[in-house]
Amino acid sequence: MIDALWGWPPPVLDPAGPYSGKVTTLAWSLFGLGAFVTLVVVFALWVAIKGPDKWKAKLGGERAILLGGVAFPGVVLTALLVWGLTLTASLTEPIHGDEMRIRVTGEMWWFRVQYLDPSGAVVMEDANEIHIPVGRPVVLELESADVIHSFWVPHLSGKKDMIPGRRTLLRIEADRPGEFGGVCAEYCGRQHALMGIVAVAHEDDDFREWYVERNERLVSAGLDITRQVESSSGSGTQGSERSTVTRTGAGANTNSGQQSGRTLFMQSGCAACHRVAGTEANGLAGPDLTHVGSRRTLGAGILPNNRGTLIGWIGDSQSLKPGNRMPSYDMLNADELEAIAIWLEQQK
Ligand code: CUA
């Protein structure tokens, strides 16, 4: 995430889609206008101090004040206001028909991500990572579970507040595949600076594959999202036919290491806050871990996701991100932490 954010050129000036392209155009225009006005002011200053008397008289005349002090700012600022409002409206216009929808909820300090079917029902949950197909606009429904956060993936769109008790919309679109870093852009407490998200844009086929892979796993766990894939690609609308959410056993074969990791996860209380579809873990307070093994980062963008960082995060999350709601599980020994990490790695 950090690489994606701090690369060169800066993401705000390197749009990867039409919405961010519009924002970048506006930004460059503001830079340009600002530079122009600065030059004019410096020139006027020079005239006022050292310029010829004739020019000084003109600069102090009524005409110069009416033109430079009233007409120019009046026209330019009004035009910019209209431009800005039109641009904002195009990023946030109401959802129409079969657009792909993802609900992103700001929490202290991570992003809950829920893929929705056209009726608005949740079909898959993830955290701190959103996957989208290239070349298709995606509507984000932004919400907050606690304080005001702000969603910002500068490569893909503008910035939008996530406000408790309110749902705001923001469209994103990528015109090339890639990973695009984002951050929470509104101070939201102690770990505001460590609240990141990654947007992954896939070519259409890859996206479908990504979706189907998860579907297969959810089917083995008693959840079926195939119908939603079909309807979200434009054909149907039977969101209400969403299959019932049943949770059977883990289904998949489990070797003993996996089994003990799973058992430890359940016994240590992890399941009280985390959900893993297809298991008895059904907590809602923390990030959904059904697909944690396939995420790029841990801790909302602060660490790469691998066995070592998983162990470190479970054992000592309070050192890595002080004040976050997950306690450090330092009562577990190294073998136990590793067993849980191995099991979590397999949750893709
Ligand atoms: Cu969430 Cu700043």
Short description:
This protein has 348 residues and is an alpha+beta fold. 40% of the residues lie in helices and 18% in strands. Dinuclear copper ion binds at residues 106, 109, 149, 184, 186-188, 192, 195.
Average pLDDT value?
Answer: 85
Low-pLDDT ranges = 226-254
Estimate what percentage of residues fall within beta strands: 15-25%
Q: What's the main sheet like? A: 5 strands, mixed
The N- to C-terminal Cα distance equals 20 Å
Overview of the molecule:
The strands form 3 sheets. This protein has a 5-stranded mixed sheet with strand order 3-2-1-5-8. Helix 2 (18-50) packs antiparallel against helix 4 (62-92) and helix 7 crosses helix 9 (334-345). The chain has 348 residues and is of the alpha+beta class. It has 9 helices and 12 strands. The model is unreliable at 226-254 (pLDDT under 50). It starts with a helix and ends with a helix. The structure holds dinuclear copper ion (CUA). Dinuclear copper ion binds at residues 106, 109, 149, 184, 186-188, 192, 195.
Q: What distinguishing features does this structure have?
A:
348 residues, alpha+beta, 5-stranded mixed β-sheet, 9 helices, 12 strands, elongated, binds dinuclear copper ion
Element layout with pairings:
Blueprint: H1 2-6, H2 18-50, H3 53-59, H4 62-92, E1 100-107, E2 110-116, E3 122-127, E4 129-133, E5 138-144, E6 149-152, E7 159-162, E8 168-172, E9 178-184, E10 196-202, H5 204-220, H6 226-232, H7 256-267, E11 297-298, E12 303-304, H8 307-320, H9 334-345
Parallel strand pairs: 1-5, 4-10
Antiparallel strand pairs: 1-2, 2-3, 5-8, 6-7, 6-9, 9-10, 11-12
The structure holds dinuclear copper ion.
Dinuclear copper ion binds at residues 106, 109, 149, 184, 186-188, 192, 195.
